[in-house]
Fold this protein.
Amino acid sequence: MRIKSGKISFRSILQYRGNSRLLLIILRIGVGLVFIYASIDKVVHPDQFAEIMQDYEILPNLVVNLASLCLAWLEVVLGVCLIAGVWVRASALMVTGLTVVFIGGLSIAFTRGVGLHCGCLSTDPGGAARTWISLWQEGLLLLACVWLTVVTLNYAARGTREPEQRPVVM
Amino acid sequence: MRTLVVAILRELPRIAGIAVASLILAVAANAMHPMQLPLLVTKEVPGLPHWVSERLKHVDAQGALDLMNNPEVLVIDTRDEPDFRRERIPGAISLPYHGFSASFPGFSVSVSRDRPLLLYCYGTACGLSARVGKRLVVYGYTDITLLKKGIDAWKAANLPLETQEEHNEN
């Protein structure tokens, strides 16, 4: 990344390929593990996750069950893809999109004054209700996802081979 | 920037592939899961399987009053603890949805599985009594009735309520 006179330009961020392949791999696997961990309780208790999704009051009741089932398994598939290094660019784009959706959903619920339990990592409704301050967790995840997406897409934009197909040089 | 957009567009088939794979896994896993949620919610509330909703009976306020003539019937308030403390249906005990996992162990020891239970929550849009009812069905309780439109219906019928002061006096 080029830093001119102490400023990081937007262009330089888009052109950033990552100077550490090891960091890319750690981040890819780390984000993948987070998504798989987050999916476990949802897959085991799909009915409880559907209840939490209903509490967000965003989707019509008609599709809440289907959406909650698909979301849980989408997290599994994305986590496996990221860890296995398969379809990394598409997976990175999707985890970024999902995290934006999570943050958006929580923000809408907070704005409406709905006190809810995130359902992010656990489907137990007994935990502490989420607040604006607790959004830092999703913010951190979003940063990691955006970084992963930008780096992997830059490989594609430059016409280089996919990062998962290149030999790891440390 | 244009090349980056092209790179994103090139990922669309893979994104669709991940979405379809997730949908297939979700439907297949749901078919094998003990809860087996209906994919589209037409009659029941989200997160409630057909086989559970078939075991839940519903009564209006007058029906609930008639039911309470049976001394065996245990009235259960599924609202949050502060609301229960403020006012409740006379004789009700608290088993809140947002604290079910903490309250249930004590409840299960003291209440037999075949005891008739009458559950209520806040009002028309409230699904908490159905959610707690579902958990009780899963844990083996066999005679569960839900008060339609919750404590709002009870109040609308001008039926008596018990407040904290009255409870302390007793």
In short: The longest strand of chain A covers residues 3-4.
